Amino acid sequence: MIKTGKNSLAFSYKAGNSPLHKMPAWLKILLIPALNILIFNLPLQFALAFILLQAILAFALHFTPRELFADLRPVLYYAVILYATSFIATFFAACQGGLANPQTTTFTLVDSLKLSLSSSFKNTSTIRMLVKLFCILQSASILFKTSTTLQIREGLGAIESAVRKILPVSKKNRFTPTASLFICFIPMVYKNWELSRRAWLARGGKSGIKMLKAIFPVFLSVGIKQAYNAARALAVRSHE
Q1: Residue 155: which residues within 8 A CB-CB, separation 6 or more?
Q2: Is the domain of 64 the same as that of 126?
Q3: Three-state secondary structure call for residue 3
Q4: pLDDT tens digits for the chain (240 residues)?
Q5: 103 FRET partner, CA 20 to 30 A, in 41, 57, 89, 204?
Q6: Which H helix or E strand runs over 17?
Q7: Judgement on whether residues 155 and 184 belong to the same structural domain of the protein
């Protein structure tokens, strides 16, 4: 039997009785985008201070380091992509300039490599973006870990109902079902991937390209089936 380790899955709800768990979901849904906008528009120091505050809050809510890493793993992948792209672009640009003089090609390649490494890892704009992205994902993690899918759906419904009361439009919530379905798919996608990966490792498989080739079709087919079933359920409820 494979232990799913539900609480260690990315963006999965974790039961608790903290004030943040008791806070209305609609309030958290409104606060998090507002904080994220501030994070992107205020200096880097604000983002760093917010990371410290999030870390204190996460440990106060008894989130384990493994759970935090599961939620923030996409930032690491994004960082690798950003730095690799920056390095390759800088390296080839430097090489093209050096190849104009064949006598110094050997030295130019070495210098190009040094320049590319230095330029990539000293790029402050990339660091700022990653820090701010880290904050945003941590905010989303706290929302999903302290709110059930039902609470998120009800929170979206409360917000939409309040907006529709003000505007001269139909009073029936039409946006909430679709939006909540999309939002609730985020933890579902992470769960499907983690379960597929653990099933592969439990059968003696190893991480790598072979694992991706083996589990990606299964992961995709399961996701499509779940999306189809959810869409059908949503269509039935909309006609009730």
Answers
A1: 24, 25, 26, 27, 28, 29, 147
A2: yes
A3: coil
A4: 334 444 445 556 777 788 888 889 889 888 888 888 888 888 888 888 888 888 888 888 887 777 777 767 777 878 888 888 877 877 777 666 654 455 544 556 666 677 777 777 777 787 888 888 888 888 888 887 888 878 888 888 888 889 888 888 887 877 877 777 777 777 778 778 888 888 888 888 888 888 888 888 888 888 888 878 877 776 676 555
A5: 89
A6: none
A7: no
Rounded CA gap, 31 and 35, in Å?
Answer: 6
Whole-angstrom Cα distance, residue 205 to residue 4? 17
Structural domain harbouring 165: 18-171
Query: Total domain count for the chain?
Result: 2
Within this chain, do residues 167 and 178 fall inside the same structural domain, yes or no? no
Q: Sort 71 into a burial class: Cβ within 10 Å, 0-12 / 13-18 / 19+.
A: buried
pTM for the predicted model, two decimal places: 0.64
Say whether both 73 and 41 belong to one domain.
yes
Output the CA torsion sign for 58, 69, 222, 2: negative
